[in-house]
Amino acid sequence: MNDMFYKIEYCLKYKDDIVFKFNIKNKSLTMVNEKLLPLSLHNKKQDYSLVQKFIADRILMLNREFCKEILTASGIEDQNDMNICIVCKGLSFRDNYWISRTNSKEKWADVNLYQNEFSVNISKVALTGNMKDATIDGTLGDKIFTGELTNKGTRAKCYFRHNNKLYLFKHETKEEIMSEMVTSFIADALNVPCSTYKNVNLYDKECSACEIFTSEDRELIPCRDVLSHYNTITMNYQGPCYQAFMAIDGPNFIKMQILDYVTLNIDRNRDNFGLLSCNGSLVSLYPLFDHDSCFKGVSTNGVYFPTGVTFAKTLELLKTTYGDSYKKLSKDIVRFKNIVTSEEFKELFLKYKSSIVYYGMIGRVNNL
Predict the structure, then answer these.
(1) Nearest to residue 270, comparing CAs of 311, 301, 238, 242?
(2) Is the pTM of this model over 0.85?
(3) Pairing of strands 97-101, 197-202
(4) Do the Cβ atoms of 141 and 101 come closer than 8 Å?
(5) Which of 65, 115, 144, 292 allows an S-S link to 156, with CB 3.0 to 4.6 Å?
């Protein structure tokens, strides 16, 4: 890391409020407002390890497609976690936390990704990996921003602004894009909030595209952070993390599990669902997203991450252990069955998937 980073005191901010200050050289931390700590840092020893954990959870995965190209386009030579996060200010489309020099006069309004333009060049490289036409805009963070350095996942993807709306584009196979699209129709039939996907070509790449739900008032708290809050890395139907989701939004959390059961979604991992925080309060399940792995499951005997047991056992638990909550959704489930078994829906489904996949899904729907 450049020596200058060691000589500067930094702070983690929530919008314009300082959460804590830290010094990299001394590995020290001074708490300023404990109440503003990210959920993932609750119930932790308040020392420099909070900084290390925040940053480790913040930056892009180093096995992400075109990671090296993204870092190069961002002008980052020293590619350790701390340097990456400080250079990009830790700015993310998930929440309103960011990293600043303690003596900086920059305000949240000056830097946040919702109000300010972000680098189109870096976004293009993130999706295509093509450095041929890439130009380094200048010093990242000096009025030049990006959300790509905190964008999770391994696939080639990028953020894109169009008509004052924000979208996430992800390069996928045609089959995966069709899964994204048709699953949003299934979720709509189940009456559970879910991203709507479109098939779009961007920079000559076939992509799925969905509008971003987050804003300065609406934040995503991923399951990863909830697990961290309870000091665990695994999830099961008897654990505190599962219970927290049930307590905050039991109906939609159950519907998520029903959706994943009927679509055999094998990738509902700790980063692919979460809670919606509005103005600092946890209010509901975050609208569902990332369904390229729906219909990839071989059978209901596969293990389902949110419960820690198989898809089949998950449905059984919903009917027994959580039977009272499941029964309260009976009208929604009957309506759902009527919609997806209708000729109109079948015709729609077959535009995206085969008849074999459709009838396999209907077999699972009949088990609800």
Answers:
(1) 242
(2) yes
(3) unpaired
(4) no
(5) 65
Q: At what angle do helices 330-340 and 355-365 cross, to 10 degrees?
A: 160
User: Minimal CA–CA distance to 85: which of 146, 37, 156, 170?
Assistant: 146
Distance (Å, rounded) from C-alpha 306 to C-alpha 272?
A: 10
Residues 6+ apart with CB under 8 A from 363: none
106-128 in b/e burial notation, b at 16+ Cβ within 10 A? eebeebbbbeeebbebbbbbbbb
CB 194 within 8 A of CB 119: no
CA 97 to chain centre: 15
As a three-state string, the secondary structure of the chain is CCHHHHCCEEEEEECCEEEEEEECCCCEEEECCHHHCCHHHCCCCCCCHHHHHHHHHHCCCCCCCCHHHHHHHCCCCCCCHHHHHHHCCCCCCCCCEEEEECCCCCCHHHHCCCCCCCCHHHHHHHHHCCCCCCCCCCCCCCCCCCCHHHCCCCCCEEEEEECCEEEEEEECCHHHHHHHHHHHHHHHHHCCCECCEEEEEECCEEEEEEECCCCCCEEEEEHHHHHHHCCCCCCCCCCHHHHHHHHHHHHHHHHHHHHHHHHCCCCCCCCCCEEEEECCEEEEECCECCCCCCCCCCCCCCEECCCCEEHHHHHHHHHCCCHHHHHCCHHHHHHHHHHHCCHHHHHHHCCCCCHHHHHHHHHHHCCC
- Mean pLDDT, the chain cut into blocks of 10 residues (368 residues total): 69 98 95 97 95 94 92 85 92 97 95 92 93 61 83 94 93 98 98 97 96 96 96 93 97 98 97 95 97 97 97 98 96 98 98 98 98
Single-letter code of the amino acid located at 124: K
pLDDT of the residue at 337? 98
Sheet holding 9-14, edge to edge: 28-31, 17-23, 9-14, 97-101
- Name the residue among 365, 324, 350 with its Cα closest to residue 190: 365
Q: In angstroms, how far is CA 214 from the centroid of its own chain?
A: 10
Query: Token pair of 229, please?
Result: 């809050």
